[in-house]
Amino acid sequence: METYLLDWANLLLRWLHVIVAIAWIGSSFYFVFLDSSLTPPEDEQLKKDGVSGELWAVHGGGFYHPVKFAVSPPKLPENLHWFYWESYSTWLSGFALFLISYLWSPSVYLIDPKVFVWSPGAAVAGALAFLVVFWLLYDAICRTLGQSKHGDAKVGALVLVLVCVAAWLATHLFAGRAAFLLMGAMIATAMSANVFFWIIPGQRTVVADLKAGRPVDPI
Questions:
Q1: Domain spans of the chain?
Q2: Are the C-beta atoms of residues 54 and 38 closer than 8 Å to each other?
Q3: Cα dist from 105 to 88, 108, 112, 185, whole Å
Q4: pTM for this structure?
Q5: Which residues, at least 6 apart from 27, have a Cβ–Cβ distance to it below 8 Å?
Q6: What count of Cα atoms within 13 Å lies in the side-chain half-sphere of residue 25?
Q7: Beta-carbon contacts of residue 138 (< 8 Å; ≥ 6 apart)
Q8: What is the b/e burial string over 44-54, where b = at least 16 CB atoms within 10 angstroms of the residue's CB?
């Protein structure tokens, strides 16, 4: 019975994970396109309101006119959509899938005696440590070097080194398929943690400042 339930959970979570991941990455790609396609506003009122860019588009028989405020709009709308559940649902469904597919049976899916011999509990703890430690190191790199001269290049180079070291460790500790899946889970955890610990709190600070009438810090 347990195997039957796990198979169904695996199937449903796999589909859920794929769908919400498409929503997350798709919306991210859309905003990348939007930012790269914006043109300076032509309307004087938009300029006075602080609009930094606009885009006219046609899709599905309708015309759309999104505008971007560089720092903050002159007035906060009542209905404001927050883009974070795309990220959270992707990570939660992915972790749940990782849990029932690998962590639930570590002796079968995580451990390969030909690669490394350790107990099921230690293997599970090691897999979880990959997710947590990578995020902590990645975050530390961004904090210390992100705002320095050529910060993007430094962060990119060090994160590349960090991923390579993690990949080497994973392939020397875990079964082959688990090692590479763990790498994807590790990077995805850092992506979603960025949203949870940095992006959304920063946006909440902006909204709170707007509601309180305080000047908004773009940083």
A1: 2-37+71-212
A2: yes
A3: 25, 6, 12, 17
A4: 0.88
A5: 83, 86
A6: 8
A7: 159, 162, 190
A8: eebeeeebebb
Give the span between the Cα atoms of 126 and 215, in whole angstroms: 45
Per-residue pLDDT of the chain (219 residues; tens, 9 = 90+): 777 888 888 899 999 999 999 999 999 999 999 999 999 999 999 988 889 999 999 999 999 999 999 878 888 888 899 999 999 999 999 999 999 999 999 999 999 999 999 999 999 999 999 999 999 999 999 999 998 999 999 999 999 999 999 999 999 999 999 999 999 999 999 999 999 999 999 999 989 998 888 888 877
